[in-house]
Amino acid sequence: MSPEAGSRFVALVAGYFAATRSGEGPVSTASSAAELAARFAAAPPEQPRPLEEVVAALRDLVVPDANHLWHPRYVGHQVSSPLPAAVWADALVSALNQSVAVWEMSPVATVIETRLIRWFCDLVGYGPEAGGTLTTGGTEATFSALLAARSAAIPDVWERGVGADPPVIVCGEHAHYAVTRAAGQLGLGMGRVVVVPSRDWRMDVSVLSRSLDGIAADGRSVMAVVATAGSTATGSFDDLETIGALCEERGLWLHVDAAHGGSAILAPAHAHRLRGLRRARSIAWDPHKMMLLPLQVGMLLVRDERALEAAFAQRAPYLFHRSAGAPGPQPDAPARVVDQGIRSFLCSRRADALKLWVALERYGSAGIGALYEHLCARTADFHDMIAARPTFETIHAPESNILCFRWVGNGSMSPEALDDANLRLRERLNQSGLGWITTNLLGGRRVLRVTIMNPRTTGEHLAAILDGLQALATETAEAAT
């Protein structure tokens, strides 16, 4: 590929960054799924097209109707506005096309991934026996962690299966769906998940203790307890110190889903929310969330790396050149550098460690921590804005960059009518292009939800979103009278 060809794509991406900086134009598309599908209904061409035409099609047909995460009024899902240096590194990852399953297929990337995992293990307070792997995201990380917990609870599971009376998984009511999905995938069944209710949007530790007592009294065993650090619903953090001590006392595997909140450890003002994280046997963490990396860069850390390798106890002599589960480095590789495929769900693995390495080299861990604090501070400001407007109500004080709230109007509508109004309000705002937010059910009621993931978002942009919501709500109310 010539530099001229590559420059066309660079110009397209740079133009996107520049165009979204001003905050002008729509945040997302007003087109329906059917309208977009019609645009791409034609079969791919049989003959090649000039590159400039392909890039022009991307510019005209794709970019305008994408969700513009770098638009400062995008405050929707937990998908980052990715750091520019990591975006450019993504092209190199694809060009090198290393498969980080075995060291010989990706010598440099394997070393970098191993070193980064070691650094993160040190950061959370794990010892020298700890390790882990990069993943596609929190769902894979939680699945792999619970796979390791299953192997620890049922050592012969690979040969004999889970049996007629498998152990249970205990989690909070706001745990990510990855937990129940893993229960089904691991052959336990979703019925083997015990859900602990919340208090103030966090797992109720007193109920957890009583639940564990009841499980033991029934003669059942616990495969793992799953706590959450930065829940999807409200961004809340479970009491990891108390939950961790409880699990250690009972000899239970604690997995912490810190996919969203793990990066708080880089932010001095928020690191205390992860107190007790070191007590976890396994941790899911997504740098592609609050470290603002491009998709996909997830991570799984385990206190004892052997437990993770035992979860993937298979032999593949055509690929892995040492005995499955055997300690020690790959021949002729640096110490502690081993094949990642023996502890990972995937075989074809992108060298996404390069994006993470570039981001840390370019911005520094302190710089990324400062971004975390900035996004959380902006969310706290938004909470105060909402509280100052009588037609809205806040649902919770934010612990991170996630906030739920509700339009209540003049207080004359029933809760059911408000549920419907808030759902329609979100839909109208997103279609209008004035902003982009999400919605959720909390306590049985429909709420509006924002996740501030864009460093460009200012108080003015957030005020504009509230103004837009209020204007749309007023239009709807007037049309109904």
**Strand numbers in spatial order across the main sheet:** 1-9-8-7-6-2-3
CATH superfamily of one domain: Type I PLP-dependent aspartate aminotransferase-like (Major domain)
* Main beta sheet strand tally, sense and closure: 7 strands, mixed
Shape descriptor reads globular
Q: Can you tell me the CATH class of one domain?
A: Alpha Beta
Q: Distance between termini?
A: 63 Å
What is the H-and-E element order? HHHHHEHHEHEEEHEHEEHEHHEEHEEH
3D structure, described in words:
- The chain starts with a helix and ends with a helix.
- The protein contains 15 helices and 13 strands.
- 43% of the residues are buried.
- A hairpin with a 7-residue loop joins strand 10 (392-394) and strand 11.
- It is globular and about 60 Å long.
- Helix 1 (3-21) packs parallel to helix 3 and helix 5 (107-124) crosses helix 13 (353-387).
- By secondary structure, the chain is α/β, with parallel strands linked by helices.
- A 7-stranded mixed β-sheet has the order 1-9-8-7-6-2-3, sandwiched between helices. It has a 4-stranded antiparallel β-sheet with strand order 10-11-13-12. A two-stranded antiparallel ribbon has the order 4-5.
- It has helices at 3-21, 33-39, 51-62, 84-96, 107-124, 138-153, 157-160, 178-185, 205-217, 240-250, 287-290, 305-311, 353-387, 415-432, 459-480, and strands spanning 131-135, 168-172, 193-196, 198-199, 202-203, 222-228, 254-257, 282-285, 298-302, 392-394, 402-407, 438-442, 445-451.
- Residues 322-335 have low confidence and may be disordered.
- It has a domain at 99-350: Type I PLP-dependent aspartate aminotransferase-like (Major domain) (Aspartate Aminotransferase, domain 2, 3-Layer(aba) Sandwich).
